[in-house]
Amino acid sequence: MDIPASILAEFDAILATPPTTQIEEQDPAPGKWVRLLRETRWENIVPPWFSLLALIPIREPVIQRIINIKEALSLRDYLETRLRQREAFLAQAVGDKVTPQCEQCAQGKGQFVGCIVVPGMLHGACANCVWEKPRSRKGQCSFLVIKENKEDAHRLEHERKVQKGDDQSIFCEWGLSSTQ
Fold this sequence. Notes:
Elements: H1 5-16, H2 32-39, H3 49-54, H4 75-80, H5 83-94, E1 96-97, H6 103-106, E2 116-117, H7 127-132, H8 142-164
Antiparallel strand pairs: 1-2
């Protein structure tokens, strides 16, 4: 089989060019789920919920499993009675995608697509893990476990220093002005 030299040259040029990586689809723009969250009653407008509500939604939460709302008439009713799930839903809309994912998300065990964290909120846990489990249950977010382990290590180190007398604590008094 004789292939013309011009076609062989085209094949060589194509094969010499490395394949380009496919661009991931962008997150869907905030839509019906975000509107639902904004319209849901937030009776306790205190931190951390107020802080989450103050953030601008950047994506529509993408659900990868059916939400079993059982006794609730609608998802809105369901979320109004379940603060942890509502926080997770909102965190999914306003947080940052992280790589690598936590252990639970890497295994596809979350309610949502992607491992989303809101820096400085939810004790460091991702939205999927906040939805699934309270902090007191086993199998909680590996990000939270790592953070708690670091905090425990710092606390133990501080206690060890205090026992040895190596702790250098600083004490000061704040004087109140007599004029108010």
